Amino acid sequence: MKKIIKNILVLVLILSIGISIGYFLRQPKTDQVVIPNDPNQKYISFVFEVYDVIKDNHWQKMEEADLNQLFLLAILQITGLKDIQTVKDKTELQKYLSTTISQYQEDSQKKEFSATLADMVLSNLSPFGRSRLYTKKEQDNLSNTVANINPEVDQYQILGVEKDADISEIEKSYQEKTKDLDPVKDIDEIKKLETAKNTLADEFNKSLYDTHGIEPSVVTKILGTDTLYLRIDKFTHTTFEEMVNKLNQIYTQQKLTNLVLDLRDNIGGNIDSLPYFLGPFIGPDQYAYQFFHQGEKTDFKTKVGWMDSLVPYKKVIVLINENSQSTAELMASVLKKYNVGILVGTPTKGWGTVEKIFPLEHKVDDSETHSVFLVHSLTLREDGQPIEENKVIPAVDTSQKNWTDELFKYYSDQNLIDQVKTLLN
């Protein structure tokens, strides 16, 4: 079993290189837009490459007339023109765009207009504000956020230890720095120190941080004598490996029977790792979830199977809240569908989109490259409805006064319920 898991982890890491928050780097299929002898050709080509990326790849199939109108309205808004224009087809839109760009004298103005137009159209796609035009810097920042890399923060400096400090020194520094902090007033400082400790006081996490700058996305602790608390903050390309490592460590040291899986405040992340996450919970080769794209549904099945270190947990509680989004919502929905544990908390954010990054070949400035960050698909929850706006609904809603009584109907274990109540408070 350990050999199989090791091989799976290697495969996950290989498949995950360059993937972030379920976003794929793919070259878009675009139509060259050429107007002979037009001095503004590069700006027109840039705008219409964005046009083609939207038409071919946005989750919602758009008629050319609707897309033309969307670009036209954005042009009118940027230029401040009041007259409502109409264009019959894409060629007429190209001519209107060329005429508009020609009104700007400076290249810097043309560049700004073209980039603003593309971003405005993208942001007005459904869902509003989710698709955008990214510069290389913005794309790099997104990749770092998804990978849980923060180049501006030094976890060693936060704890005040050297890079060759051993685990005992790191633990000692953490205790000294937190002993006089107030758990309410100094909560932000405590969280920073906890992140630093979780990063450096675990050999596996420390290795990831020292090698790649990756901070941990999985936190565990033992509640009472029989409950494992497992929190996933986001889904990165190393989160599955982190979870397996944590579960195996605990499995060899202590036999527990209850599991609290905390997906609260989880911002989502690498959705392509989800077939690996779900396999240990629902079994191998199981139909897990669906994407919806331009009228078509795509099924996704689990890539791995049961895991020995998860088998002992007979009572499972999955915590969600209004800040659980994206991949976290989808995972909660699948666990609900397969009756793996009880969903406890409040309805999720309802942010059920899958975005992809499409690098643009055309440039408006030789010193800058852009990419389209586009909503490519919607995720569907257990009843076949989009998670977007509909949310994932818990079985036990903790906003209700009698929620502990409702949870008791599922698990008549008062100690477990008290532990959950403490976590929520």
Q: What does this protein structure show overall?
A:
- There is one protein chain.
- This protein has 425 residues and is α/β, with parallel strands linked by helices.
- It folds into three domains: 234 residues, 2-enoyl-CoA Hydratase, Chain A, domain 1; 94 residues, no CATH class; 63 residues, DnaJ domain (Helix Hairpins), CATH 1.10.287.110.
- Helices cover 44% and strands 15% of the residues.
- It is built from 15 helices and eleven strands.
- The strands form two sheets. Strands 2-3-4-7-8-11 form a six-stranded mixed beta sheet, sandwiched between helices.
- 41% of the residues are buried.
Topology:
Layout lengths: L1 H15 L24 H17 L6 H16 L10 H13 L4 H17 L8 E4 H12 L7 H5 L7 H12 L8 H14 L2 H10 L5 E6 L3 E6 L6 H15 L4 E5 L11 H9 L4 E7 L2 E6 L13 E6 L6 H11 L4 E4 L7 E7 L10 E11 L15 E2 L5 H8 L3 H11 L1
Parallel strand pairs: 3-4, 4-7, 7-8, 8-11
Antiparallel strand pairs: 1-10, 2-3, 5-6, 5-10, 9-10
Helix pairs in contact: 2-4, 2-5, 3-4, 3-5, 8-9, 12-13
Named CATH topology of the largest domain: 2-enoyl-CoA Hydratase, Chain A, domain 1
Uncertain stretches: 1-30
Radius of gyration: 25 Å
Q: What is the CATH homologous superfamily assignment of the largest domain?
A: 2-enoyl-CoA Hydratase, Chain A, domain 1
Shape: globular
Structural class: alpha/beta
